[in-house]
Write a structure and sequence with these properties.
Blueprint (H helix, E strand, L loop, with lengths): L3 E2 L8 H14 L7 H13 L5 E4 L2 H11 L5 E4 L5 H9 L3 E4 L21 E7 L8 H11 L2 E5 L7 E2 L2 E2 L6 E5 L12 E5 L2 H11 L3 E2 L2 E2 L10 H32 L5 E2 L7 E3 L5 E5 L1 H4 L3 H10 L2 E2 L23 H9 E4 L7 H11 L3
Parallel strand pairs: 1-16, 3-4, 3-5, 5-6, 6-9
Antiparallel strand pairs: 2-10, 7-8, 7-14, 9-10, 11-12, 13-15, 15-17
Helix pairs in contact: 1-7, 2-7, 3-4, 3-6, 7-11
Bound molecules: pyridoxal-5'-phosphate.
The site of pyridoxal-5'-phosphate (PLP) has 14 residues, from α3 and α4.
Length: about 375
Amino acid sequence: MERINVTRSSMPPYEEYCNEIKTIWDTAHLTNMGALHKRLEAEVAEYLKTEHALLFNNGHITLYCILKAMELQGEIITTPFTFTSTVNAIVQAGCIPVFCDVKPDYTIDETKIEKLITEKTSAILGVHVYGNVCAVDEIQRVAEKYHLKVIYDAAHAFGVEYLRRGIGTFGDASMFSFHATKVFHTIEGGCATYQDASLGDALELQRNHGICGETLKCVGMNGKMNEFQAAMGLCNLRHLKEELSARSAAYERYSQCLANVKGIRLPPVNKNITTENYSYYPILVDTEQYGESRDKLAERLNLHNVFPRKYFFPLASENETFEKGLAEQTPYAKMYSRNILCLPLYAHIDLKDIDYICNIIAKK
Ligand SMILES: *Cc1c(COP(=O)(O)O)cnc(C)c1O
């Protein structure tokens, strides 16, 4: 039996990609905001229902450039229950991450943010983890009260809509990752969405070494997406609708098959999320009720050639270069990191494979 991994990258039809990159041989324009880049930037903005979107070479640099473009300093309140990239970007931008605990939907607990604010706090950085949406309205209220910027790591949330609004239109800016493993990808890539056009100017400088004509406006980065990446994005975007409906079917199958397994909590549901993207299928294992730990279940699945992932273990706050004991300050995040397993989910995963996985979980 073939290995079933947690994800499998979407591949557009080979001919379609070849057709898209043909023009690159005509123009020899390989990078630096070429024709394909321009087309994809416009299409992504439209898909995300946002006025402003800028493409980057990956999600991590996108987030770093957002923090630099905002000239943030001091402390940024964030969540440890995320991919390490979120926190790395904060540190690399010269700021200090302050870790806030999370809620049962795994997003930052908005009721605990205010207590963490000091005179050094400059921003709140929430993560729409697994495509679950942060408490955007309450976070905005707290931010306005203390004059803080709001940034979202929306790496998991491409195409998600909250009360019919594009997820990238909340806060001051959002980062999306177009990494090969994400719902929509450009092999490697990312995008920033933002509300204020002047932030866009600063982001464009960050993306291109700080260069503006013949002046060097700031110390910038190289964040440019190349034409081959853009071509992959144009192809994948064309197939996204059908991929999402396949993902939705797979997601529903898991929910049906696992509904009655004692000790397994299914992904949370939020009725305000009017469009979902079915990016991950995280189950929470209650060791006592289930009769087996998350780690043991993972090992058992591995023996059956199924490879789920422990997103996010360890916590981003457990970086060995940070002070010890940060994980204990966010007990829910710590507990989730020890008990969550993300099951294989990708477009066109065989529903029979899902039944096979669920039978192993249900110990049938
Ligand atoms: C994937 C991911 C990133 C980083 O994106 P890259 O494009 O891989 O650099 C950041 N945050 C989260 C939550 C992610 O899942």
